[in-house]
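Team,

Forwarding the record for the chain on the shared tracking sheet. I've put the sequence and predicted structure together so nobody has to dig through attachments.
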Amino acid sequence: MARINIDKISASSTDSLDWHCAFNILPCSFIQLIKQPITDPCVKFLRNLFLSSSLLRSLLATFSLISIVFISSSTFAAAPTTFSQAKVALKKHIYFDQNNHGALGTLYCGCDWQWVGSSGGRIDPERCGYTIRAIENRGIRTEIEHIVPASWFGQQRQCWQNGGRKNCNKNDPVFSLMEADLHNMSVSIGELNANRSNYRFGLLPSTPQQHGLCKSKVDFKARVFEPRDEVKGLVARVNFYMHDRYNLTMSEPQQRLFIAWNKQFPVSRWELERDQRITQVMGHSNGFVTGKRTWSFKHRNSGIGVLTATAKTPRTQLPKTVNSNKTRTQKSDAAVLPIRGNRNSKIYHTENCSSYNSMKPSNIVNFSSEADALNAGYRKAKNCR
C-alpha cells in the first residue's frame, strides 16, 4: 500500500478521509506524536487532524481508552496462595515505597529500612534509636510478620492439632488462604517479631521500653504485647478483619480492647492507601478500614473467607475445624438445599434455620452457596443451628 504523504494533507481535507486511510495513518502518527518534537510534520498533521476530524477524534479516544484499560489491568497482580508468595507481593505492591521516610516505618518501631533480597531488609538501629535487647542478628533486619499470629488462626484448625503448621500448609486450603492474606501482614524488626511471639495484645502502663526509643513493649511473664499508639487502630482493624472473614474465635477481653483502640485511633490516610493497594492484589478490601463493616461486642462473623476457600475445594478434600459438625460435613451435595435469601430483609437462611420455609415465595432469592449470599450483601439469620 502506498504511504500517504502527510505534508500534503491539509486540515480542511481530513474530513474526507475514509476509515481505510484513517487506520493507515493513525498508528504511525500516534507513535510519532509521543516521540517527536512539535516541529515534526507528522505531529503537526495529527494535531490538525484531531481538531478538524470527528472521525479521527473518535478513533483517538477509542485507542486511548483501550490503552488505559490495558495498562491499568496489567498493574493488578494475582493474589498470593502461599506465605512465600505473599511476602514478595507485600514488598512489590504494598510497601515498595514505605522503607525510606514512609508513613509508619516498621510496624512496631517506626524505623526506616533498606530492602534486601526478595522480601527482606536491614535497619540502622542507631539511626532510628532502636536498642537491640538480645537477638543481634534479628535486631538489624526486617521480617514480614502476621499481625494476627499464624498460631492463633492455626490452632483453630484441625490440621494444626494433627501436625502443626507444616501439616496445615500441606492439607488445609483455608489455613493457606489465611497465611497468605496480605491484609494481615506488615514489615517488622525481626527481634520485635520474635519478642512479640504469639502473645495477646494488651496495655502495659508500668512496663518500661526495652528497645531504646521503640515505643512498643512486651511483658514476657504475663505474655502480653502492647504496640505503639500509632498502629493500635490498624492492629485492631486487622484483628476484626481476620476473625470475621475466617470465622475465628476472639476472647471477650481482646474484643473490648480492640473496640476501644478502633475508636481511639481512627483510620489514617496511609491505612486507607494500604488497604487500596492490598485490594488491587487480593481482590477484596478490609471492610473495617473502609467503613463497610463494623464490629460490636460479641460480633457475629461472616466467615466469607472460609466459605470462599471451601467452595473452590472438592468436598472430599475439605479439612475440619476443631469444632466442626461431623454430621453436616458428611452430607452429600445432593442433600444440600439451596440457600434462601429474603430480598426485603437481606437475610439468608440455610436448611438448618427455623425460618427456612416461612418466607413468602415472592421474597425468596436462591443462592448456590453462603459465599454467594454474603457477596450479594446478605447476612445469615440468627435462628440457625
